[in-house]
Amino acid sequence: MVNYKVIAFDADDTLWVNEPYFREAEDQFAKLLSMYETENKIQQELYKVITGNIPLYGYGVKSCILSMVQCATELSNNQLPAEITQQILEIGKEMLTKPIELLPGIVEVLEYLSKNYTLIVLTKGDLLDQEKKLERSGLLTYFHHVEVMSEKNPEGYERILKHLDILPQDFLMIGNSLKSDVLPVLKIGANAIHVPFHSVWKFETVSKKALENHQYKTLTSIGEIVDFL
Amino acid sequence: MVNYKVIAFDADDTLWVNEPYFREAEDQFAKLLSMYETENKIQQELYKVITGNIPLYGYGVKSCILSMVQCATELSNNQLPAEITQQILEIGKEMLTKPIELLPGIVEVLEYLSKNYTLIVLTKGDLLDQEKKLERSGLLTYFHHVEVMSEKNPEGYERILKHLDILPQDFLMIGNSLKSDVLPVLKIGANAIHVPFHSVWKFETVSKKALENHQYKTLTSIGEIVDFL
Questions:
Q1: CA of B37: how far to CAs of B48, B80, B202, in Å?
Q2: Domains of chain A, first to last
Q3: Min Cα–Cα distance to chain B from A66, Å
Q4: Largest alpha-carbon pair distance within chain A?
Q5: pLDDT digits over B118-162, tens only?
Q6: pTM
Q7: ipTM for the assembly
Q8: How many angstroms away from the CA of A176 is the closest CA of chain B?
Q9: Measured between CB atoms, which of B66, B86, B151 is closest to A89?
Q10: Which residues of chain A are within 8 Å of residue B80 when distances are taken between CB atoms?
């Protein structure tokens, strides 16, 4: 039994639904361009453009939309009608204003944990969008600190723990991504709990090999965290 | 004479050149669309689209480019050739990879002040872009903390001071924007120094009336800060 002082939550697909909206957006995109290519090929090309642009654009809706515009002009051999460009921009604006759909049980868990632990949010993505989602979620009241990270790597977690003056052994991270929420946290000597979400972005998946010799707990739903702690 | 504990610097146009690159980008944009409208009209429309999108997109290069794409399709009555869309995306990529041009005297000032004060950076804009600019600038070593804010308003400053455990009277902000770096800081009871930069984005200007009854120091160059303190 460990007595954690700070418990950090990932946001997208841990507190609320996110990934399915990106999948929907990609489907809409593929349909918009269906006169040029098969939907399968369009999705593959889009994935290449989005991940290729991550070093430059980072994560989040705005980056995704910029990559969609680029991918669309490329797939159309520079014949893309401006109307479709407009529709791609609309996909992005819709994503940025979507109501927040909390995951089941999340309010009860936060309500319970906030009495005994300092809770924080560590999310990656676009600064303004993540802040606005937290506001819309109504969950801000449970969190002592919110940090949007440009990348969830060990260095990023280390910097935050140092900044918040927390020792790794006092810190627990909870999230749906093995790549972003679990492995880098274990690497700095802290603990992590994996709560899988049914939809995972291909870019966030890790090989079985990468998980070997790592100890972390997997829960099937966020509600189990209360019993576990 | 006040003994500040923490001195915060704005980044864009305080530590390094920024605004002229946005002006250049707008000029390039206007030239790209010169078959549709006068450059003056194009600049005016772009300003409307960019500022209209701030609540949704926030600040920074990616937001600016998304607004440029929108504005271009609108100005062209949805006739925009895909090639021009591509060129707009290129303007953005160029902005995101531009070498950093430090303002004169900045290294000496940081070198000197870092011996006697805790220095931090408070900037607004895109998270990843600002972090990467700081890295490229070589100035990271001088700063104890870097925070990218989605909006520089009194609430934002208050949250940061609380989070860093600093009293307003121990805090000094230095920046080029009266609207973002000076007025909101005075409002929370802290001090601010204005170091104007020759190029100011129209959106950052404030009326004379808004400045009435406010006490802050204006320096003509960042180097004067050493004598002032």
A1: 15, 13, 21
A2: 6-16+100-228 (3.40.50.1000), 19-97 (1.10.150.240)
A3: 7
A4: 62
A5: 999 999 989 999 999 999 999 999 999 999 999 999 999 999 999
A6: 0.93
A7: 0.93
A8: 22
A9: B66
A10: 82, 85
